[in-house]
Amino acid sequence: MWYPISSMLCHCRILFVLSLLLLYPLISQGQSGPDTAAVLKIIGSQREYMASVKANPNNRLVEIQKAIPGIVLDIRYATKNNFMKQLMYQQARAFARKPVVDQLRSIQMELKSKGYGLKIYDAYRPYAITVAFYKKASNKAFVANPKTGSKHNRGCAVDLSLIDLKTGKDIEMPTPYDSFEPQASASFAGLPEAVMKNRDFLIAIMRKHGFRVIPKEWWHFDFTGWRNYDLMDIPFEKL
Question: Is residue 81 scored above 70 in pLDDT?
Fold first, then answer.
């Protein structure tokens, strides 16, 4: 059957408009969907936190230094000696979920028999601090995206290194803490043999007790059970 060209063009326009109407919800969702951070479950009050602890005692944030006597703290974010160059924590304290601290205690005991000890740089980190880091960091690859949150916000990540128990001095590692250099990678090979041996020893003993190092930071270890814990945004002074 023959149709006038004008009729065919009109028909095509109608089909085109209908297709746009059908696709618009998908397009608009991809362009301006809700901010992921807005739908994250974040515990931001003491009431919520205590309710979670009552439901499961493993949710408790335990103060590491009180639970593991002799452990050394060097909480950089309670000073200006950090990549932000400003005070981020009001108190130089470190917390982690109970199972995390239990494993750190076991690691400390095992290290002690070898003449080493742990030095903690950071552990639980309130969600608001992660947001501040992401806004200021020049290299976003080295900081957690607030859209997903950090394992630190869950109380399930620790930044740490080793010390010599006899001297109290740091064991030599590839880079200083919070370095953005390539050498900070947990698998960087172009290093002195002794330094790589120290790094790999730390990674191995942490792995043995349920922690996994992240690829870009030899000092950052995530607890394998982190998915069981919610993000939190409660400052140290309120714990």
Answer: yes
Query: Which residue has tokens 């190092």?
Result: 213
Helix (H), strand (E) counts: the chain: 7, 9
The encoded tokens of residue 11 equal 């028909």
The β-bridge partners of 222 are 157, 212
Strands (E), the chain: 42-43, 61-63, 72-73, 95-97, 116-122, 157-164, 211-214, 217-223, 231-232
What is the CATH code of the structural domain delimited by 35-238? 3.30.1380.10
Count of alpha carbons within 13 angstroms of residue 18, beta-carbon side: 6
**Cα 185 to Cα 52: distance, rounded to the nearest angstrom:** 36
Which residues 6+ apart lie within 8 Å of 217 measured at CB? 142, 159, 184, 186
Q: Residue 38 has what pLDDT? A: 54
Antiparallel, parallel or unpaired: β 116-122 and 211-214 = unpaired
Q: For the segment 28-69, what is each residue's pLDDT rounded down to a tens digit?
A: 333 333 344 457 899 999 999 999 999 999 999 999 999 998
Reduced to 3 states, what is the DSSP secondary structure of residue 13? helix
Of 159, 79, 164, 174, nearest to 123 (Cα)?
A: 159
